[in-house]
Amino acid sequence: MSSLIIRTFLTLFVVIDPIGLAPIFVTLAGNRASHEQIKIARKAVLVAGGIVLAFALVGSLLLSYLHISIEAFQVAAGVLLFKIAVDMVFAQRERETEAEEKEAQLRQDISVFPLAIPLIAGPGTLASVLILVNEASTYTLGLVIVLAIAAVVLLTAYIFLCLSPRLARILGQTGVNVVTRVLGVLLAALAVQYIANGITVLLKNALKV
């Protein structure tokens, strides 16, 4: 049980990367009043939480409807996470396109887009949640544990967003890049493990046929 809790927390913390969100949030909302920044951060985290909850509950049903095995999804998620990890290691993580970034600068409400989606509840986060929910199915109250840990990570992200101006000043861009690179290495290892696990099961199933 403890291994599931630790693995879930580390996975979601690395994928969401609350520290890496800080400079992005300052760029998007740094010119707004502090109380407005807190309001934006709160709404973004709540919306992202709703998306994560919905995906955790119906994600497996969606895969089943599309006739996609969890192992195939695991391999695809591993490839996606590895791409994100490489970008993090080279401090070139782009969670939104250039056009999306320009649009965000002009938006009055940036909490849903681009903060909640894709910065917090992006493809990597949703893929990780679905894999963790599947792994937790062998534990008693496994789904509840994953959702509770996800809530803790989202709360951590909210705290980092609220403290982002101060955090950005303390760490600076170099400090943020160093932390992001370390998390990127961990995410790369996790992605490789996802791919290896998925391919192993797929090969075993293929050999049985």
What does this structure look like?
This protein has 209 residues and is an all-alpha fold. The model has no long low-confidence stretch (mean pLDDT 87). Helix content is 85%, strand content 0%.
Describe the secondary structure blueprint for this structure.
Elements: H1 2-16, H2 18-29, H3 34-65, H4 70-89, H5 98-106, H6 111-120, H7 123-136, H8 142-162, H9 164-208
Helix pairs in contact: 1-7, 1-8, 2-8, 2-9, 3-6, 3-7, 3-8, 4-7, 4-9, 7-8
Entry summary:
The protein has 209 residues and is mainly alpha-helical. The protein has 9 helices and no strands.
Task: Considering the chains and any ligands shown, give keywords for the structure.
9 helices, 0% strand, single chain, mainly alpha, 209 residues
